[in-house]
């Protein structure tokens, strides 16, 4: 079984990836939050810093590109290949309003003629430069039935992997994924498939495998892995009695690394608040302390609250089962 870590903008940057990889492991590929190339600049200095090999040693990282212009994609891909990357991922799933308004991410999906021309261009380049291109997609923009035509389009290209998040743009991340469309992909897609969406527990994975009547060999996890960092362990059958200790190590490592590169305190705490918006689900009965933590404005105050929460807690049973 292969497990991929989905990109979450603002959360799964190189600091988090390094900490997670060193403490938990069992991730076959990490996908970096997207870079958005422009005509004048294939990537910003901030994007470059996140994906530079020096900041991702020992990690199997796949950079992700968000664009609707084949020339911009190709220029970014050339930069990435020069950095040593042999695979890139095309983002056709981002539902952000600002992204979709520019015809990127999920906003590119209804433009099927333009999308096909775009894919012609980037795969022509890939074929001449030994570059693998995977695609992360939603079912469509307006209607999930758009997926039928999208599968036909994707089948015309040597996509290394097709990562399907079975929602449409307006679903964002709410409600149940439309699993019947992934079942359609299993029957009709010529591309190797990866399932992505709402796997938070081992039970979720087992139920999906039962629904599709196949073992899902490759899955991409995002919010599930942030919420329960030990989820990959459980899916791969690695039992452990050190869940709380490893969580503390993950927290402390990420926190201290942010403190090295960010100031003042409030900027560090903004980053940690994003993580605690997921982690709070691990600590039943500590809601009052977590509410205080999310309002902390100084690192000393934050550290005191975190120590109290972790020292006198056990992780919720459904997160360690």
The CATH architecture term of the largest domain is: Alpha-Beta Barrel
* Mean pLDDT score: 95
| Major sheet attributes | 9 strands, parallel
| SS-derived structural category | alpha/beta
Walk me through what this model shows:
With 321 residues, this protein is α/β, with parallel strands linked by helices. It has 2 domains: 2-235, Alpha-Beta Barrel (TIM Barrel); 243-320. Helices cover 47% and strands 13% of the residues. The protein has 15 helices and 9 strands. It has helices spanning 14-23, 45-51, 70-82, 97-100, 112-129, 146-154, 179-188, 202-212, 223-227, 231-235, 243-261, 265-279, 287-295, 299-311, 317-320, and strands spanning 2-5, 29-31, 61-62, 64-65, 87-92, 132-140, 162-168, 193-196, 218-221. Strands 3-2-1-9-8-7-6-5-4 form a 9-stranded parallel sheet. Helix 3 (70-82) runs parallel beside helix 5 and helix 6 (146-154) runs parallel beside helix 7 (179-188). The protein is globular.
Which features characterize this protein?
alpha/beta; 321 residues; 9 strands; disordered C terminus; TIM Barrel; globular
